[in-house]
Specification:
The structure holds three protein chains of three kinds. By secondary structure, chain A is an all-alpha fold. Chain A is built from four helices and no strands. Chain A has helices at 6-29, 36-39, 59-82, 84-112. Chain B is mainly alpha-helical. Chain B folds into three domains: 1-77, Up-down Bundle (Four Helix Bundle (Hemerythrin (Met), subunit A)), CATH 1.20.120.1200; 88-118; 127-159. Chain B has nine helices and no strands. Chain B is elongated and about 110 Å long. By secondary structure, chain C is mainly α. Chain C has helices spanning 2-6, 9-46, 62-72, 83-99, 118-139, 143-174, 179-185, 201-214, 226-229, 239-264, 273-276, 287-307, 313-340; strands spanning 105-107, 110-111. The model of chain C has no long low-confidence stretch (mean pLDDT 84). Chains in contact: A-B, A-C, B-C. At the A-C interface, helix 1, helix 2, helix 3 and helix 4 of A face helix 2, helix 3, helix 4, helix 5 and helix 6 of C.
């Protein structure tokens, strides 16, 4: 089984290598002088106002947490979908209960307004 | 195979050390990503295909994104975190000792030959790890599986009740109402007779 | 030949794989080059212009001129940027975009890495693309870049769930995570009526639109939104570092198109399989059909860009969470019923 993964390892290395070679070429071939104005962060020609690292709405964290939960649910669905033909009615119902709980959670989210983006 | 294991295990340990020694919290998170990758490869070497890829999918693709959000946007002040070091040190040492004892036990148990892990026999190329897992998980272990669903449900409720804040005075678009508008509600055609030119 | 035989057998295998990988990489890169030209030409004709026509015959050498230009441009690393992360971020977005091709079934019986969990691998790799964006935005230390990165991250995250559910349905229908087997599961006498786009139609639409959103393409391109935040996460990138982001974006477009073709339009299968038989030219499966289907979806990408105005951010989030996710969950139940009742011709 592991020998099937060898091309993936090589492909990851080639992908990163291609990017690396391009970067190297760019840094070698690129011309131009540097000065303080050019190297300052872009802000429509103004001097940068305050710090660019700002605090963000807590909503972003909520979205990220909900994403993790749903991602896990999807991870649980895949083995079930693959083994579907060997599971029979019992396996079918097991997943139905699981999905039902997921739907309850989803409706709760919806009603609470967690999916609202305003 | 041995060599591969030691290469990835070494990188894993190195990355784990990086997580706790890096000064910049964003670098710490990235070291953790590297650590997850290497543990995924180690699982793959054990031919636990599904778990290895799901580790990348869930931990690297989702959990670490949340971590990045947090350390990037909370703008954690490194100095104030460091000031508590001596205060929390005893607890840290305690946790460390417990883990060390547990690890020692695992190794000891193995050497007693109680529950030794036998030699892994390489599976044939068409061995389907995910299917085997599915056949067990949803029949034999369905109780634990449904329990996981309940825990996830609790997590949804907890996350929402902890972070949901309704800011007052927000004007949001109600799309259902917008789409539901009928012509008759908005436009009124009035029939009137032609008037004489003034 | 003598040199070749003197190499140990394991290294021979590695070298053969390396050659194949390089071939695929070069073809994908060339496709990216000509996709940029196609984009400018197609959008040009849609807007009643002729697009680039100066470099080479009919402008056919334009992509190479662009590449050389971008390579020769200065690479500016802003003074307040985190240098290491700033340079590494483009690499993090190009590597997954290319490496996902390892499991792509290109023509009957050929996949570089014929792994059983191919679909999971693709899903895992596409979920890594978000790192390049977030790190680029953060390392630039610029407000526009950071805003763009955050928008893009929340957006990618929302559409990935819809995508995941749609793929669960594909796995339910085909019973396999191996992309080659998914293609073969769609084969049958009815030709294109046998493919999964028909029984999974809502998911097919959801998957492709989510793909457009995942690649941050118009009309979901708020991460770049040139009229609001200039260029979003790559505003500080210039020269070759910008070129790599560009390469990654287009490579992702090709990847999503190819994946949609594999999951829903039967990959390398011929649409006339039953009509002409597998031995005839039109009925035989092959790379040609796969490329044709991929090209169709790529054209849709360009068509969308030329046609639709940009979504507003709250509308994007609403579409992802409140429309696509419910649709996919409902259709998983419907599909479960279809499989249980063995609806022909797909599940008989």
């Amino acid at each position: 089984m592991l020998e099937n993964y060898l091309p993936i390892l090589i492909f990851l290395l080639v992908g990163a290598g291609l990017g690396g070679v391009l970067l190297l070429l760019g840094f070698l071939l690129g011309r131009g002088g540097k000065d303080a104005q050019k190297l300052s962060p872009y802000e429509c020609g103004f001097e940068a106002f305050e710090d660019s690292r700002m605090k963000f709405d807590v909503r972003y964290y909520l979205v990220a947490i909900l994403f993790i939960i749903f991602d896990l649910e999807i991870a649980f669905l895949f083995p079930w979908a693959v083994a579907l033909d060997g599971l029979g009615m019992f396996g079918f119902l097991t997943m139905a209960v699981f999905l039902l709980l997921l739907v309850v959670g989803f409706i709760y989210e919806w009603k609470k307004g967690a999916l609202e983006w305003d | 195979m041995e060599i591969l294991f030691y290469v990835f295990a070494t990188v894993l340990v190195g990355a784990a050390i990086g997580v706790i020694t890096a000064r910049n919290p964003v670098h710490s998170v990235l070291y953790l990503v590297l650590a997850f990758f290497n543990s995924a490869v180690l699982w793959l070497l054990l031919e636990a295909e599904f778990l290895a890829i799901v580790l990348v999918l869930v931990y690297v693709g989702a959990v670490m994104v949340l971590f990045l959000f947090v350390v990037m946007m909370l703008d954690v002040n490194v100095e104030s975190v460091k000031s508590g070091f001596t205060r929390y040190a005893p607890v840290g040492v305690l946790v460390m000792v417990i883990i060390a004892v547990e690890l020692a036990q695992v190794i000891w148990v193995r050497h007693m030959g109680l529950r030794g892990v036998g030699e892994l026999t390489p599976m044939p190329a068409d061995y389907n790890n995910t299917r085997e897992l599915g056949l067990l998980l949803y029949t034999e272990y369905f109780y634990a599986f449904e329990l996981a669903a309940v825990i996830l449900l609790v997590a949804i409720v907890a996350a929402i009740s902890l972070t949901m804040r309704r800011r007052p005075g927000l004007k949001a678009q109600d799309i259902a109402r917008q789409v539901g508008v009928r012509r008759e509600d908005r436009v009124k055609l009035v029939k009137m007779d032609a008037e004489e030119r003034q | 030949m003598a040199i070749w035989e003197s190499i140990p057998e394991q290294f021979q295998m590695v070298l053969i794989i390396l050659a194949q990988v390089l071939a695929v990489t070069i073809v994908v890169t060339l496709c990216v080059a000509y996709l940029t030209l196609a984009e400018r030409k197609v959008i040009g004709y849609i807007q009643n212009r002729i697009g680039p026509n100066r470099v080479g015959p009919k402008g056919l050498l334009q992509p190479f001129a662009d590449v050389i230009k971008l390579l020769l441009k200065e690479v500016v690393v802003p003074s307040s940027a985190n240098r290491f992360l700033f340079v590494i971020a483009p690499l993090l977005s190009i590597t997954p975009a290319l490496a996902a091709w390892a499991v792509m079934p290109l023509f009957p019986g050929f996949t570089l890495a014929n792994i059983n969990a191919g679909l999971l691998y693709v899903l895992a790799l596409t979920s890594l693309g978000v790192y390049g964006v977030i790190l680029a935005g953060w390392a630039s230390n610029s407000k526009y870049a950071f805003l763009g990165a955050m928008r893009s991250a929340a957006q990618i995250v929302a559409y990935e769930i819809a995508m995941g559910f749609a793929l669960v349905a594909v796995v339910m229908a085909s019973g396999s995570l191996n992309l080659g087997e998914i293609v073969e599961a769609q084969a049958g006498g009815a030709g294109l009526l046998n493919w999964f786009w028909l029984p999974l139609f809502p998911l097919f639409v959801v998957y492709f639109i989510s793909g457009v959103a995942e690649t941050n393409r118009a009309p979901f391109d708020v991460a770049e939104g040139e009229s609001e935040i200039v260029a979003g996460f790559h505003v500080e990138y210039s020269g070759v570092t910008f070129a790599i982001f560009f390469l990654a974006e287009y490579a992702n477009m090709i990847l999503i198109s190819a994946l949609t073709a594999v999951f829903f339009l039967g990959g390398w299968l011929s649409p006339f399989q039953g009509l002409f038989g597998e031995d005839s030219v039109l009925g035989a499966p092959g790379l040609f059909w796969f490329a044709l289907k991929t090209a169709f979806f790529l054209f849709c990408f360009l068509w969308f860009r030329a046609t639709f105005p940009r979504y507003r951010y709250d509308q994007i989030m609403r579409l992802g969470w409140k429309i696509f996710i419910p649709v996919t969950i409902v259709w998983i139940f419907v599909l479960g019923a279809m499989i249980a009742f063995q609806v022909p011709p797909w599940f008989a």
